[in-house]
Amino acid sequence: MKTKFLIPLVIFVVLVGFLAIGLNRDPSEVPSPLINKAAPAFEIPQLEQSNKMFSPASMKGQVWILNVWASWCVACREEHPVLVELAKSQVAPVIGLDYKDKREDALAMLSRQGNPYLLSAFDANGRVGIDYGVYGVPETYVIDQAGIIRFKHIGPITTQVLNQKIYPLISELKKS
Amino acid sequence: MKSLFLLLATMLCLSSSFAKDATPLAADPVLEQRLISISEEMRCLVCQNESLAGSRSDLANDLRREIRTLIQEGKSDDQIRTFMVERYGDFVLYRPPVKPITWLLWIGPFVILLIGIVGLLNYLRRRNQSIPSTTLSQTDNAKIDALLNQDRRDRRND
Question: Do A33 and B63 touch (CB under 8 A)?
Answer without folding.
Answer: no
